[in-house]
Amino acid sequence: RGIPREPGSHWAEPGCQSCICQGGRVLCDTVSCSIPCSHPLPAPAGACCPICTGCLHEGVARAEGDVFSPSDGNCTVCVCLAGNVSCLSPECPPGSCPSPSPADCCSCNPEKCNFRGRTYAHGARFSLDGDDCTTCVCQAGEVECSFTPCPLLDCPQHQRYLGPGQCCSTCRDPPAPTGCFLDDNGVEFPVGQIWSPGDPCELCICQADGSVSCQRTDCVETCPYPIRIPGQCCPDCSAGCTYMGRIFSNNETFPSALDPCLNCICLVR
């Protein structure tokens, strides 16, 4: 590389290469790192070998003398010393514990429950003899009993029903409707009843489920002078003619209201 080297001299090249001048030739090899610790830190910038002035544990760099707990916890305590990580777990006494909690470091076997001549494991749930409405649970040697919780009902009180042997009430099915009740006039129509709500062109029927279905009548027959009969939806073009407010029968003649010299005749076609 244009630089003279003395025979037997050593130097470092980029890429962690170690070179030596020997017999007029340059011999290079990758630097061999001797790591005297179990959890070294990565090599700093410009260096080739990891260092033991700290610890790398579970991907986290720890300073020299740092005390920490591993990710899986369980009350284990670790310390970083000269690149080595040493962990200690608590010593748990043998036997059972009266009231375990998730924060306890030591695992234990909770006490069983002796209740009415039977033995239940910790956490076991059971019912009293002949009473399925009461639920009991064994908690570290003690039995606690309470009524079985019932679901909330969305029906009114008069529709609730408690059957024989049941712990919780249920909702009765509402009675089938016998008719249609109209709030506007307070009239109740039986199922199948057909009526007009006031408009002769509209007819309503009471359905089996208590609902009201209405439909309008479309008039398709037209004529110049139809007769409109009170209470009838469509005008009548076959009974006669309406002229100037008067009703004339078929083939009946009458004077014109515009010219007294003209006579008119009602023709149904």
UniProtKB/TrEMBL annotation:
It is found in: Secreted. Its main location: secreted. SMART domains: VWC, VWC_out. The keyword Nucleotide-binding does not apply. GO terms for cellular component: cytoplasm; extracellular region. Keywords: Glycoprotein, Secreted, Signal. One of its GO terms (biological process) is cellular response to virus. InterPro entries: vWF_C/EGF_Fibrillin, VWF_dom. Residues 1-53, 53-114, 111-172, 178-238 form the VWFC domain. PROSITE patterns: VWFC_1, VWFC_2. The keyword Cell wall biogenesis/degradation does not apply. This is VWCE protein. It comes from Polioptila caerulea. The gene is Vwce_0.
